[in-house]
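Example record for the data management plan.
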Amino acid sequence: MEHLREIIESAWENREQLKKDETQQAICDVVARLDQGLLRIATPVEEGWVTHEWIKKAVILYFPIRKMELTEVGPFQFYDKIPLKKNYDKLGIRVVPHAIARYGSFIAEGVVMMPSYINIGAYVDSGTMIDTWATVGSCAQIGKHCHLSGGVGIGGVLEPVQAAPVVIEDHCFLGSRSIVVEGVRVGREAVLGANVVLTASTKIIDVSGKEPVEFKGFVPERSVVIPGTLPKTFPAGIYQVPCALIIGKRTASTDLKTSLNQALREFDVAV
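Corresponding structural encoding:
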């Protein structure tokens, strides 16, 4: 692995190296390992997650060494540099038309893909549901037994290489049309209500106690989150800007397999 890393780092500094067969093979090896789940862009550590920049570099370098190719699937045509993922039956993945995943994304056994999209470098762990029109961006990390509801948007990030990907940890529920981008991490078993938008600059405010507690870029484990607004002063006056409100924690009575609606109803949130 260290040999692969050295080749990738050298090619990153000197793109002339991309002409060498050894360099191209090393890049292809890294992407193949991503596709099989043997490597991943980010991995959990004791105090959070660490991003492996050299692997992101390999994904970025994969594009210039690839040629545009025509792919035909029945009456449908695609013209791209990255092939589509294949062999879902052997991998134990349920794929409903018109779900699409790019080669170089890892999708574990037991994942269900409704008509959705998963980009290169993404990692989707076992038992997760990617619901209709949900998108999982490049390098995003999705945990076990999550549910990304209809229209959920998980942002992708390749550059800058030091930028952390979006991380959705195990057993999370993301409500319809919620959006998580710019390296935000959603802690284990958290619940996001419909239309929650989380960016790196979004204020995430825990309002369940006597005093508000503010977070940025991170939703604590088991939090139940809904959309909110905050007043902000501009030259033209005071206007409401979006934020996210943590209104409580999932209770012991909420089974891990319960619906998003039930988790929100426990806090008298209209669903």
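Summary line stored alongside the record: The longest strand covers residues 237-249.
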